[in-house]
Design goal:
Elements lengths: L5 E7 L3 H9 L1 H7 L13 E8 L2 E13 L3 E7 L7 E11 L2 E9 L13 H20 L2
Antiparallel strand pairs: 1-6, 2-3, 3-4, 4-5, 5-6
Helix pairs in contact: 1-2
Organism: Dysgonomonas gadei ATCC BAA-286
Protein name: Activator of Hsp90 ATPase homologue 1/2-like C-terminal domain-containing protein
Family: Belongs to the AHA1 family.
């Protein structure tokens, strides 16, 4: 069960360019994802954001690894306040009949074992399903 990537797939009935902009444009990301003050779409750029849940603030630090315009966006994903671990999130976009398929792959979540139960694989699966299945879907349907 360890080292198995989390893979979440969704198909959205919108053009690929609309999805690409939603996942890579700072202003659009704020509407459905997170507020990321220091986001810059550039390989090697670092960006940070925080999420508060049940009186705990979770700091996320990410570094952009790969950008293939209109196809792939990949970045590291760390929680420096809670864990020494590092993982990688990759967004792959593919045109399909009448829309766009997004495949999100999150590898390395087992590296957060030192952070406790809040960082379980199950919590990441639920989080990505909510983010892609509800938040992004609702944003794209506007």
């Amino acid at each position: 069960m360890h080292n198995i990537p989390i893979i979440t797939e969704e198909i959205y009935p919108v053009p690929l360019s609309k999805v690409w902009n939603a996942i890579t444009d700072k202003n659009q990301m704020e509407e459905w994802y997170f507020t990321i003050e220091d986001f810059e779409l550039r390989e090697g750029a670092e960006f940070n954001f925080t999420v508060s849940f049940e009186d705990v603030i979770y700091h996320h630090r990410c570094v952009i690894k790969e950008i293939v315009p209109q196809k792939r966006f990949s970045h590291t994903w760390t929680h420096p306040s809670q864990s020494n671990g590092e993982s990688v999130v990759t967004w792959d976009l593919q045109p399909v009949d009448n829309g766009t398929k997004v495949t999100l792959t999150h590898t390395g979540v087992e590296n957060f074992a030192d952070a406790g139960a809040d960082f379980s694989r199950e919590n990441y699966v639920a989080g990505w399903e909510e983010i892609l299945g509800t938040s992004l879907r609702n944003f794209l349907s506007k």
